[in-house]
């Protein structure tokens, strides 16, 4: 085909002497195009090599084993790397009957399968997935899990009472791998003479020992993993580790009792949350917890227990939505709440709840596991954006553990953002299309009216795969140093992937567990605040408890709003004042009826710059402050929409 085209072109060249040069140029372009076609065809036919899968048994851990799978990216310099790999497994040899099932998705060229048994055969293959190419499959390989003494280390020892040297029965010894790829922790329980035996894969470990009624410790006589001595086990090792534990002197425990009633003296059902402020995780997380919840009985009575010298803050959330949530002694914030110091049994902690306006509205839905659709016990926060001179409010409710259903009722009308969280799962703000997000600015708002009932606000939460022994903890604060409750805190790895996330407690504290070594970015998001971030949060084998506090700043573009209750008969949007302005200006408007209001700012080419208002508002006169910090000098427009009313004004920003 190429020869025919060349002859045809050459014939044309000799037909016209005057056009020879022009035709020669055409010939060159044609030949170049044909060469590109040939190269492209050759490249398209070139097959991407399949992954080279290698498997091996990597040693025992108690009575369980693991299979290591590796498929190095040896062609990375020549071919585009896959978007991700799927790992497939079948029980039995390749020739055996049975079905392959996908067990893992990863972007790395390795995987550790801990779900295997001694004496069994398994078969594996890898599927490499490319964005613009068909899938590529590795050869199928099989492995027989057998014990080999030269690839394991053996340890033994005894655990005794440090003072009496009496052997401790049923003490727990746990070997915690420094590296996640070494597998999960290995543990043993001592027998009647306090002895234990373990088989472990070679590697570096921390050793933890504990027994009921005794102070737990890490090897060697360390109270935390940070202080612990690292132990290295080699193939064929036979080592002995003996431990002596101190008896635990338990502090005295006292009761705190009281009642919850309304202003008329009627008993109320409520959840009473006790936050133990002297055991908050501001220095080191307390594995015993720093807050707990009790319920009142039919008579409004509650009873809780605390240790001697504990300092408590009590928060009451009534079942009756016509009553206000509040801290003990009619306080409204954690910072101003009364502290109760427990030195003996305390009675008379009586709480009288004030009434609030009643609205016949609600938001309801379900919380489920995204993979199994199983119902989850979770907490749902509803954040109301600022409006009408009031601070944004936060309401929360617990979902039913059997059905996953929840309902928030008697909400003050306005614009809300919802977020759901469950232990072991990644929290997310709500989006109607199901998209998960940890940033409230990427979430859908929900408009709540005085009598609107909104249903099917459903959440499907993704499970967090804990892969290590480290902890990141701290507090989330505002610019004034006040604790921020219900803020979403998330931890991202170097690839920008979320590895853990949680929600701050009543006292602004958060804790994320099960982290492996690495460098992370910690961020936090909550409605009406700008996101806060902390980069280079480093978790190492010798730095397993990392404390980081985040400070949130108020959203500058929507920080100030005022309103009056004057009778308004028509819509109006006033000219901003001052104008020109630097850096802030005030925008006034009035509403004759209640309804959804939006005010947005645009630049001269029509690009949206900021949303000043996007919420349900009562009738009245309003003034909204707009700050142009971070913007360039020039002309901007602001537009209001409410019902059938629309108006636009021009303003000038001069630095």
Mean pLDDT: 82
Rg computed from alpha carbons, rounded to a whole number of angstroms: 33 Å
What about the largest sheet? 5 strands, antiparallel
CATH fold group of the largest domain:
Immunoglobulin-like
Strand content: 35-45%
CATH architecture of the largest domain: Sandwich
Instruction: Count helical runs.
Output: 2
Helix amount: under 10%
Superfamily (CATH H level) name of the largest domain? Immunoglobulins
Tell me the distance between the termini: 68 Å
Shape: globular
Uncertain stretches: 1-18, 36-46, 280-289
Structure description:
The protein has 655 residues and is mainly beta. The chain has six domains: 2-45; 54-147, Immunoglobulins (Immunoglobulin-like), CATH 2.60.40; 150-245, Immunoglobulin-like (Sandwich), CATH 2.60.40.1120; 253-353, Immunoglobulin-like, CATH 2.60.40.2190; 362-552, Sandwich (Immunoglobulin-like), CATH 2.60.40.10; 556-653, Immunoglobulin-like. 6% of the residues lie in helices and 45% in strands. It has two helices and 51 strands. The strands form twelve sheets. Strands 3, 4, 6, 7 and 8 form a five-stranded antiparallel sheet that branches. Strands 10, 11, 13, 14 and 15 form a five-stranded antiparallel sheet that branches. Strands 19, 20, 22, 23 and 24 form a five-stranded antiparallel sheet that branches. A hairpin with a 6-residue loop joins strand 40 (518-525) and strand 41 (532-539). The protein is globular, with a radius of gyration of 33 Å.
């Amino acid at each position: 085909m190429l020869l025919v085209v060349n002859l045809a072109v050459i014939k044309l060249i000799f037909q016209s002497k005057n056009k020879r040069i022009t035709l020669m140029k055409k010939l060159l372009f044609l030949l170049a195009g044909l060469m590109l076609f040939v190269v492209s065809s050759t490249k398209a036919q070139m097959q991407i090599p399949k992954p080279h899968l290698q498997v091996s048994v990597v040693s025992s851990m108690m009575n369980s084993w693991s299979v290591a799978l590796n498929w190095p990216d040896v062609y990375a310099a020549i071919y585009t790397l896959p978007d991700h790999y799927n790992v497939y497994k079948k029980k039995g040899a390749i020739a055996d009957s049975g079905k392959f099932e996908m067990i893992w998705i990863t972007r790395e060229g390795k995987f550790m399968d801990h779900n295997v048994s001694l004496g069994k055969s398994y078969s594996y293959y890898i599927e490499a997935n490319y964005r613009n190419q068909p899938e590529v499959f590795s050869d199928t390989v099989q492995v027989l899990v057998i014990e080999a003494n030269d690839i394991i280390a053996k340890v033994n020892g005894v655990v005794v009472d440090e003072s009496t040297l009496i052997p401790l029965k049923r003490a727990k010894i746990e070997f915690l791998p420094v590296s996640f790829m070494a597998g999960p922790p290995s543990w043993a329980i001592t027998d009647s003479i306090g002895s234990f035996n373990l088989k472990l894969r070679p590697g570096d470990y921390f050793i933890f020992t504990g027994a009921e009624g005794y102070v737990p410790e890490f090897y060697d006589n360390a109270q935390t993993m940070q202080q612990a001595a690292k132990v290295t086990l080699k193939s064929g090792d036979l080592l002995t580790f003996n431990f002596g534990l101190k008896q635990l002197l338990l502090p005295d425990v006292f009761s705190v009792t009281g009642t919850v009633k309304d202003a008329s003296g009627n008993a109320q059902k409520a959840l009473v949350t006790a936050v133990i402020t002297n055991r908050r995780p501001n220095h080191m997380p307390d594995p015993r917890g720093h807050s707990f919840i009790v319920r009142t009985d039919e008579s409004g009575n509650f009873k809780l227990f605390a240790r001697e010298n504990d300092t408590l803050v009590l928060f009451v959330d009534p079942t009756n939505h016509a009553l206000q949530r509040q801290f003990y002694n009619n306080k409204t914030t954690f910072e101003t709440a009364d502290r109760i110091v427990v030195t003996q049994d305390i009675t008379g902690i009586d709480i009288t709840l004030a009434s609030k306006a009643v609205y016949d509205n609600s938001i309801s839905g379900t919380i489920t596991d995204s993979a199994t659709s199983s119902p989850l016990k979770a907490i749902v926060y509803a954040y109301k954006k600022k409006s009408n001179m009031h601070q944004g409010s936060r309401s929360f409710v617990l979902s039913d553990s059997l059905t996953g259903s929840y309902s928030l009722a008697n909400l003050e009308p306005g614009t809300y953002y919802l977020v759901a969280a469950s232990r072991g799962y990644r929290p997310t703000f709500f989006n109607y299309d199901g998209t998960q997000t940890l940033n409230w600015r990427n979430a859908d708002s929900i408009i709540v009216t005085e009598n609107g009932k909104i249903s099917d606000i459903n959440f499907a939460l993704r499970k967090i795969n804990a892969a290590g022994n480290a902890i990141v903890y701290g507090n989330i604060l505002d610019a004034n140093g006040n604790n921020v409750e219900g803020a979403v805190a998330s931890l991202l790895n170097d690839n920008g992937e979320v590895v853990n996330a949680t929600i701050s407690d009543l006292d602004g504290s958060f804790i994320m567990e099960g982290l492996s070594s690495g460098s992370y970015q910690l961020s936090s998001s909550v409605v009406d605040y700008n996101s806060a971030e902390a980069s280079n949060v480093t978790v190492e084998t010798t730095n397993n408890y990392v404390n980081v506090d985040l400070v949130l700043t108020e959203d500058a573009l929507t920080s100030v709003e005022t309103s009056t209750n004057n009778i308004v008969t028509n819509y109006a949007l006033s000219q901003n004042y001052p104008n020109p302005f630097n850096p802030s200006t005030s925008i006034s408007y009035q509403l004759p009826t209640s309804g959804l209001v939006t005010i947005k700012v645009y630049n001269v080419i029509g690009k949206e710059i900021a949303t000043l208002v996007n919420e349900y508002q009562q009738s009245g006169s309003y003034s909204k402050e707009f700050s142009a910090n971070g913007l360039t000098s020039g002309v901007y427009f602001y537009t209001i929409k409410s019902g059938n009313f629309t108006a636009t004004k021009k303003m000038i920003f001069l630095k």
